[in-house]
Amino acid sequence: MIEHDYALDATLPVDTVPEDPPAPLAFGFSGSGGEYFRIWIVNLLLTVATLGIYSAWAKTRRLQYFYRNTQLAGASFDFRGNPAAILRGRLLAVVLLAAYHYAFGFSAVAGAVTVSLLVCLLPFMMRSALRFRLSNTWYRGLPFGFAGEIQPAYRAYALPVAMFVLPGALVALLPDRPMVSAVFLLYLLWPLMHGAMKRYQHSSLTYGDQRAEFGASSTELAAPYVVSFVAGIVVFVVLGMMMYAGSQLRADTGARGIASALIPLGAVLLVYLFLIFSALFVMVRMNNIAWSETRFPGVRIASAMRLRSYFRLQAVNVLLTLLTLGLFRPFAAVRTWRYRLAHVHVEAPDGFEAATGQASRRPATAAGDGSAEFLGLDLSW
Q1: CA 370 to CA 359: how far, in whole Å?
Q2: Among residues of the chain, what percentage have pLDDT more than 90?
Q3: Which of 50, 81, 86, 154 is 20 to 30 A from 128 via CA?
Q4: Does the pLDDT of residue 373 top 50, yes or no?
Q5: DSSP 3-state assignment of 122?
Q6: Which strands make up the sheet holding 344-347, listed edge to edge?
């Protein structure tokens, strides 16, 4: 085959020479497990010594370490959150949790009022937590942000909040009513709820004054749960066959007892591995879908985490954390962060500098960011 050299072709003008698109940009991480271990152990000791009060400052130090050691296109990220605001949010969360736990011990009315307040307040608090976390995350001198409105927040979070607080409340209020158990059917809607929350979160991201576009629906985000459910049916069919074989061995007086004991043990191991695999599968698939469908003007994000490699990573992390009585935990955190960054790329067909240069400071969100700074709830999104 003869290669065509456009540069030497006199019949083509110079400006028609095709240019290769820019290569995807990869994230980098300059931190290390040993370096983070020193931060982690100090955070742990001071948190214990202050009965948890220092945990807000520990959270800030941890985020600053990971963000400031994360680079993209030659620039690092930063976290500028106020630890005092995080502490206020945590104290508020503790008060609400205590109220939910003890309210029914005072009276049914106090319990009902507390549950109603939680259902009304928690969606707003979740939105405020997202605004706080993102408005304090900076890159190239500009903050990220969260532009989600109040009404979509209630549509995304009200039902999941009700799903977690109503069962206990109804059992306390109506202990002798068998129909109360029907409220647990809400858990069947969890895949769609989770998908709706992810869609609300990613479709409301901002960078400077640029708002993200999000292309996935709630049902697409919930699809990994369907795959996991189908796989669960297969696993439980196999489990039933194993238990049947075990019962046949026990009925056979000539069979060795050790064989009949190993089959139930294998069944338990199978269920345990399936639960771990299914949880990791849902997390990996939803993470890939959510980030790969998130776009800013001129910038596209691509996430390609792999279940098998991520499972190996977490299996080693758990094993070494157990063997070291928890001292491997900071190393595990660095390994996980580095893995996730290694499987995310940023594509900017027209050039990354040109795309990010279009963003400017947001002119009209100071009041919203101020309320987020006041709450400062430490809720991960």
Answers
A1: 21
A2: 50
A3: 50
A4: no
A5: helix
A6: 210-211, 205-207, 142-146, 137-139, 75-79, 70-72, 25-29, 344-347, 299-303, 294-296, 213-214
Residues in the chain, total? 381
Q: How far apart are CA 96 and CA 82, in angstroms?
A: 22
Mean pLDDT along residues 272-283: 92
Q: DSSP labels for 25-48?
A: EEEEE---HHHHHHHHHHHHHHHH
Backbone angles phi, psi at 296, to 5 degrees: -105, 160
- Produce one character per residue of 142-154: b if its CB has 16 or more CB atoms within 10 Å, e if not: bbbbbbbeeebbb
Helix axes 33-49, 55-68, angle to 10 degrees: 170
Query: Which pLDDT score is estimated for 7?
Result: 44
- Taking each helix axis from N to C terminus, what angle separates 33-49 and 329-342, rounded to the nearest 10 degrees? 130
3-state secondary structure of 222: helix
Euclidean distance between CA atoms 129 and 123, whole angstroms: 10
> 261: Cβ–Cβ under 8 A, 6 or more apart, which residues?
none
Residue 204 — φ and ψ, nearest 5°?
-110, 10
What confidence score (pLDDT) does residue 248 get? 65
Q: Are 346 and 301 in contact (CB under 8 A)?
A: yes
pTM of the model: 0.83
